[in-house]
Design brief:
single chain, 325 residues, eight-stranded parallel sheet, two-stranded antiparallel sheet, 10 strands, binds flavin mononucleotide
Amino acid sequence: MKTKITEMFGIEHPIIQGGMHYVGFAELAAAVSNAGGLGIITGLTQRTPELLANEIRRCREMTDKPFGVNLTFLPSLSTPDYPGYIKAIIDGGIKAVETAGNNPQKWLPAMHEAGIKVIHKCTSVRHSLKAESIGCDAVSVDGFECGGHPGEDDIPNFILLPRAADELKIPFVASGGMADGRSLVAALALGAEGMNMGTRFIATQEAPVHENVKQAIVAASELDTRLVMRSLRNTERVLRNGAVDRLIAKEKELGANLKFEDIMAEVAGVYPKIMLEGTMEAGAWSCGMVAGLIHDVPTCKQLIDRIMAEADAIIRHQLAGFLRA
Ligand SMILES: Cc1cc2nc3c(=O)[nH]c(=O)nc-3n(C[C@H](O)[C@H](O)[C@H](O)COP(=O)(O)O)c2cc1C
């Protein structure tokens, strides 16, 4: 397939692996890129710019294909050294950056000067238009279904994507709820130029996370995610577990008085325990409703090849077959 996204990022298939905290290490990014998609290293999972530079070097040893880095601008306990991370990205020869969270305008000139294409993740049409107006090259439109932070508007992709298509001039990919060839064809039909997947890529052989995490996704249905931290305007879609139930009970009890400190035990510093150690009850971790469509743990190449073959068959046979001669 050739789309504006495959052309922009120099990739074979219009499939991007979204940045994921404690999942997007070099192993996964390289596997996705080697399979013809765009793999992405999660910048802030590397605690310092030096460690990110090292992770970029490790990834380059594993693939000669293009890969990117995610830089997330979300509320956090201490402000990361963003100038240092940007320098590591530029010095590392990266040509694709996925930004997410707050407005990345301040960082665009330096990245564009270095020949980097910036795709900003947005959960609304108005934020997508803002991204376009400040000079982002593409948008990843993240619907209400998505794992991670769906924003506060709660618009699912069946509405959000065609709305984005009606308004945007720059290309966009569909993100949230994407799993297979059906997702890709639907995304293209709704106006996207490709798709971004998070949760689906966790349940792959190469994702360097504990086996328990992969099995939790395979076991989960589309009914098993919950939204947390809404009252803090930092809504996150997570997989339900004991810690999430406790968190939700606190939210109910404290209502608008809830503070981040009240839920530290359930959300702060839990990713390494879950992703690396497989302690599944350690806290709340992002997971999309798409878990209901995930039933296996293939290699990234098997997954991407299967998606592309399925999409090809749907377009050529299933859809074309509906047309009267
Ligand atoms: C475990 C996990 C961690 C994530 N961490 C980040 C992150 O650090 N930065 C970011 O921009 N998006 C993050 N995301 C969001 C993904 O990049 C992607 O937008 C989202 O997963 C798409 O929805 P899907 O899970 O339905 O495919 C995360 C998602 C998951 C599931």
